[in-house]
Predict the 3D structure of the following.
Amino acid sequence: MKWISTLTVASLIVVSGISVKGHAADLPSLTPETVADYVYAVVESHRAFYTSHVVELLEEQGIAKAGGEWHTEKKTVPLPVQVLNETSQRFSSKFNGLRYQLISLWPINVKNSPRDQVDKSSLEGLNVRPERPISRIIKGDAQTYFRAIYPDVAVSQACVSCHNNHPKSPKRDFQVGDIMGGLVIEFPVNTR
Ligand code: HEC
């Protein structure tokens, strides 16, 4: 009976398209949209975990609060958006060109403004059709990139209150459910 199970395993491998030799080129390829969805899932789950299990816990216990000026203010930890943007800056320079960033048409921090016309028109497009991220192929001089922008929604009153009352916020009438900005996910793609 041993040969049957060997045969079954072998045919399963063939049917599922998994290469026995394991060369990457033989594996079924992923679309850039799927890769961006994977990165999005990881980034957003880390942000949600940090918000509810670090920031809210520290605030509830009166230990620290989250604030934009955490570099200089005592008893202040980074805002979730800063953890997100700053971790990307940390690794994208030494890694392979993958980057992610929360941006907005109404940024508190001007560094989080749209980088170019593509970002700007994608953010505008999200306000009209927020169901799926807006993606584009960006051709640079030496490299071609895939860039997707996912809507960033005001999920709670905390998002709205803090932004509407922040001295540097250019917009003061956000409401729960509004799209406040977008999460950019960009990585190089092979165009052979
Ligand atoms: C306690 C205040 C506070 C809360 C709560 C808050 N934010 Fe922010 N948010 C900020 C600050 C300050 C910045 C700018 C951070 C920096 O220096 O990059 C920012 C940045 C952003 C940006 C990037 C554009 C910009 O304004 O610079 C987006 C998008 C954003 N927040 C969305 C949200 C959403 C969605 C929520 C709720 C899930 C939220 N924020 C909760 C204070 C807050």
